[in-house]
Design goal:
Layout: H1 2-16, E1 31-32, E2 38-39, E3 42-47, E4 49-50, E5 53-54, H2 59-66, E6 72-78, H3 94-107, E7 111-117, H4 126-134, H5 139-153, E8 160-164, H6 177-199, E9 204-207, E10 233-235, E11 238-239, H7 244-260, E12 266-270, E13 274-275, H8 282-302, E14 305-308, E15 318-320, E16 323-328, H9 344-350, E17 354-358, E18 360-368, E19 373-380, E20 387-390, H10 393-396, E21 401-405, E22 409-413, H11 428-435, E23 437-440, E24 445-448, E25 458-464
Parallel strand pairs: 3-6, 3-14, 6-7, 7-8, 8-9, 9-10, 11-12, 12-14
Antiparallel strand pairs: 1-2, 2-17, 4-5, 13-16, 15-16, 17-20, 18-19, 19-25, 20-24, 21-22, 21-25, 23-24
C-alpha cells in the first residue's frame, strides 16, 4: 500500500513539471445548464441570408457542425424580416425558416441562440441607432415588439438557450462614445433584457459592448466598465485580433468587464476575418493558423466558450475601407451558400478536442496541437450527471486514442471500434469508472456518464495511439 501511494505521488509530481503555478489562470464565472453542469459553449454563427439571397441548412449541415465540435448555433436574425423597423413589413416565411433551423439543431444535439442584427436594413447608420436609443417615432418599441415574437415562440423550447439582444451596437448622432454607452445604449439594453425576461424568464440574455469604428490598437469595442445590473445575463463581446499581444490584453480586459457585472463570459464571435487571398497563399494560411491556435489555447485554459462566424460558403466577398483586399467570415472556400470545402487552416483549429459539458468545475484545459494531447483538470461533482468531451477521432485520431482518468483508469479506442478496450483493472471502483464511459461515433463525443472515482481533483487525458506497424 505504501509503495502504491509513493508511485501515485511521484506520477503526480512528474506530470506537474510541465506547468508552473505562475502559468495558471483564474477561470471566469462559469455558464451552467439546468443540471448545474459547467457548459463550454462552442459552435458557429448560422445565417438566414446573404447578399445573394436566402441560405437554408440541412440535417447533414448540422451533423457537420457537431462533428467539428459544435454544441451551439447562433442564428444571425434579421430585424427587417421580423418587421421590426418603421416601413418594413414582416416576411411571413421568416419565422418558419427560424423554426427549421432550431429543429435541425435540436435533432443534432445542439442548442440555439438568436442574435438580433439591425443593419440588414439599408441604409442604417448613426441616425437609425439614435432612433433606437431615443425611441424616435417608436423605433425602440417596434424593435422590442419584433423581438417578442421570437421570445414568445420559443419560451418553452429547452433547446433555445437565449438571445443576444443587440449585435455590435454603435453610437447615434452624439459622437461621444462614453455618453452614448452610459445614457443611451445601457438603458436600451436593460429595457430589452427586462422585456425578454418578462416573457421568457428561464432564458439567458447576452449583451455586447459599444462598437466603435476604430479601436486605436485595443480592438473595436469600447470598454464596458459599468455593471450591467441584471441577472441571468452573459457578457458576449467579439474578439478578432491578429496581433497576439493585443488579443491577450483584450481577453484579460473582457474577463474584468464580465466580473464587474458578475456575468459569465462568452465570445459571441471570435477569430479574424479571412483574406480571400489566403486560399492560395500558404504563408498567409500559416499566419492565420498560428493566430487561431494561440487564441484557442488562451480560451481553452480559461474555460471560455466562443462562437465562430460563419458556417457558410464564400459566394459573397466582402470589402471594407479598412482592408485593401476582399475578405470573408466564411469557413468554407467554395461559392455555394452553405459551403463544403473547408479552410482547413482554420477548421482544424475549430475542430480541436475540448470539453463541452463538465459535471463539476473546470480548473484547467490544455490541448497541444503538435502532439494532439488534451489534458483537462477538474473538480468532479457526481451529483450533476454526465460530462461530455469532444474527441474528433475521424479528423485527428485515425489510429485510435487513449483515455486516462486519474492515474489508474486507462481505456483505448481502436480504429473501427465502437467500444473501449479495458486493460486489466482489478479494482472494483476503477472498473465501475471505466464502464461509465461511452463513445458516440456520430457526434464524436466521449460521454462520461458518472464520476465514480472519489477524488477531489481529477485529470482527464486524451492522447493518440501509436500507429501499428505493418509486418
Amino acid at each position: 500500500m505504501q509503495l502504491r501511494i509513493t508511485l501515485i505521488l511521484l506520477a503526480l509530481f512528474t506530470r506537474s513539471l510541465g506547468t508552473s503555478n505562475a502559468d495558471d489562470v483564474a477561470m471566469p464565472m462559469a455558464i451552467r445548464d439546468d443540471q448545474g453542469r459547467q457548459i463550454v459553449a462552442t459552435g458557429f454563427v448560422t445565417i438566414t441570408e446573404d447578399l445573394q439571397g436566402t441560405v437554408r441548412y440541412t440535417a447533414d449541415d448540422y451533423r457537420r457542425m457537431v462533428q467539428m465540435g459544435a454544441n451551439f448555433q447562433v442564428i444571425r436574425t434579421a430585424l427587417g424580416r421580423l418587421g421590426g423597423w418603421p416601413g418594413k413589413d414582416e416576411d411571413p416565411t421568416y419565422l418558419e425558416q427560424l423554426d427549421e433551423m432550431v429543429r435541425l439543431a435540436r435533432a443534432a444535439g445542439m442548442q440555439s441562440i438568436f442574435k438580433l442584427v439591425v443593419y440588414d436594413i439599408r441604409p442604417f447608420g448613426h441616425p437609425q441607432w439614435d432612433a433606437i436609443y431615443e425611441n424616435t417615432n417608436g423605433a425602440q418599441d417596434q424593435l422590442i415588439h419584433a423581438w417578442s415574437k421570437i421570445w414568445t415562440r420559443y419560451k418553452d423550447d429547452p433547446s433555445v438557450f437565449g438571445y443576444d439582444i443587440l449585435n455590435e451596437p454603435q453610437h447615434g448622432l452624439d459622437p461621444n462614445l462614453q455618453r452614448c454607452f452610459r445614457e443611451q445604449l445601457l438603458p436600451t439594453q436593460r429595457r430589452m433584457v427586462d422585456a425578454m425576461q418578462a416573457i421568457s424568464p428561464n432564458k439567458w440574455a447576452l449583451y455586447q459592448p459599444l462598437y466603435r469604428e476604430t479601436g486605436a490598437g485595443e480592438g473595436p469595442f469600447l470598454p464596458m466598465n459599468i455593471p450591467f445590473g441584471r441577472s441571468r445575463v452573459i457578457y458576449a463581446p467579439h474578439l478578432y485580433q491578429m496581433n497576439l499581444d493585443r488579443m491577450r490584453k483584450t481577453l484579460r480586459r473582457y474577463e474584468r468587464e464580465a466580473a464587474i457585472s458578475q456575468a459569465p463570459l462568452l465570445l459571441g464571435e471570435w477569430g479574424p476575418a479571412t483574406d480571400i487571398a489566403a486560399d492560395t497563399d500558404e504563408t498567409l494560411q500559416s499566419r492565420y493558423r498560428d493566430v487561431y491556435q494561440v487564441t484557442a489555447s488562451e480560451l481553452d485554459r480559461r474555460g471560455i466558450g466562443a462562437i465562430k462566424a460563419w458556417f457558410c460558403g464564400s459566394r459573397v466577398e466582402l470589402r471594407s475601407k479598412l482592408r485593401r483586399e476582399p475578405f470573408t467570415w466564411a469557413i468554407f472556400s467554395d461559392k455555394t451558400p452553405v459551403g463544403i470545402v473547408e479552410r482547413k487552416f482554420i477548421t482544424d483549429v475549430l475542430a480541436r478536442p475540448r470539453p463541452l459539458a463538465i459535471a463539476g468545475d473546470l480548473k484547467d484545459c490544455r490541448y497541444d496541437f503538435a502532439t494532439r494531447v488534451l489534458e483537462i483538470r477538474l473538480k468532479p461533482d457526481a451529483t450533476l450527471g454526465s460530462s461530455v468531451i469532444f474527441v474528433p477521432r475521424d479528423r485527428f485520431y485515425e489510429d485510435g486514442f487513449r483515455v486516462e482518468i486519474g492515474l489508474e483508469v486507462v481505456l483505448e479506442m481502436h480504429p473501427g471500434e465502437s467500444q473501449f478496450s479495458t486493460p486489466s483493472i482489478t479494482d472494483a471502483t476503477l472498473r465501475e469508472q471505466a464502464s461509465a464511459l461511452r463513445w458516440d461515433a456520430d457526434s464524436q463525443r466521449l460521454i462520461i456518464k458518472d464520476w465514480v472515482v472519489d477524488d477531489p481533483m481529477l485529470t482527464v487525458r486524451i492522447s493518440p495511439l501509436a500507429a501499428k506497424k505493418s509486418r
